[in-house]
Sequence to fold (404 residues):
Amino acid sequence: MTQTIETDVVVIGGGIAGLWLFNTLNQQGYKVLLLENATLGGGQTIKSQGIVHGGTKYTLTGTLTKSAECIAGMPDRWRRALRGEGEVDLSGAAILSQSQYLWSPGDVGSRLTTFFASKALRGRVEQLKKTADFPDIFRHEGFRGKVYQLNEIVLDIRTVIKALVNGLKERILKVDWSENTRIVTEGKKIAFIEHIVGGKTFHIKARKFVTAAGEGTEDLMTLWGLSQPEMQRRPLHMVMVRHRHPEPLFAHCLGTKPVPRMTVTSHPDGEDHWVWYLGGEIAEDGMKRTPEEQIRVARSELAALLPWVNLDDAQWATLFVNRAEPRQTKLLRPDAAFIHDVENGIVSWPTKLALAPNLSDEVIKVLNRQELSPSGNQGFVLPEDVQHPDICEPFWSGAFSDHD
Ligand SMILES: Cc1cc2nc3c(=O)[nH]c(=O)nc-3n(C[C@H](O)[C@H](O)[C@H](O)COP(=O)(O)OP(=O)(O)OC[C@H]3O[C@@H](n4cnc5c(N)ncnc54)[C@H](O)[C@@H]3O)c2cc1C
Fold:
């Protein structure tokens, strides 16, 4: 027997982009179903550093790029959501740091001059003049350099995922495209998605199908029969350091290139340890290195930059992960959230965690333009037989041998 599930919108992919959109559409009364093939948030989202960028990092060349402009409004948008006053309610989510900092360890004066001369930075960055205002980690007599405070919060991403899923789990479906789910097309249109579970067949219909599947979007487009838009991957080799040094570090270290020499965020593991997570130039260049070489480089970078931090007992691990984005010439970074309206679907990538609200705005603009108004979602739940995906584990889960 075949049962039809009628919806307004189907969102495919439960990372930050899919979940923010799914939650927002739900608030607006859309009958919306989310499909996830692994765990919620378990893609790039949980592996991100959780920084809600305000664009400062993107103005390191001293010019106001479109990216910097678009992203500038995002921190306030997220802060409202975190206070429970936004279009999604993130009041249950945890903020790891109210600010990301920027520090210049040595003589990088000329770049800094251009950087801070930029109009783009006004109001977004403040030099901390007194050591007493520095975050604890830099209040050491061994510290040389300057510290700047940025208007960028750092989030505990798992709690953000939980907040976005809160109360909506019954509208989220676990799918397996190789086993029980397939796209049925009519020309380039998606006619329906067929899902078979417990001997029952469901035909999922929607007025709009939105892909927000991160790196999985490419395969999904193949299943749908689309060749455009193209996707690019920017590979990173991140480093994780689990240790007992008491002070967290949330900072970009300024180097000689537009990319920070190192970007560090700190994540409590619930067992009195911090997991420092290292990205930036070290992660981009690290693609050429084995995990052992990458750890060696990270050790020596931290020893040179923060010699007073004792990491003798630290545990080290690395993580290969790709950023997935629409293709750009020369692997440049995209400017803003990307959406491509095609037939009865939308292909999307937020390009940054911080830009999830921007992606949601752009999708809703298309729905409004096409007069796809909400049909009401009171009482909309999936049939009992279906499975719901779990929320992801922390990014370091399984990485350290005596952990988990
Ligand atoms: C190391 C790293 C650090 C980063 N740090 C930051 C940062 O600090 N700040 C920032 O703003 N951005 C950051 N980013 C970028 C940011 O993480 C991504 O832009 C963002 O998380 C992408 O979200 P997404 O929802 O599009 O994709 P994802 O988080 O990858 O989610 C896609 C989801 O779709 C699911 N999926 C895949 N294929 C299918 C399918 N066929 N069917 C159903 N579901 C499917 C996946 O399982 C996953 O749950 C970072 C990225 C990386 C890699």
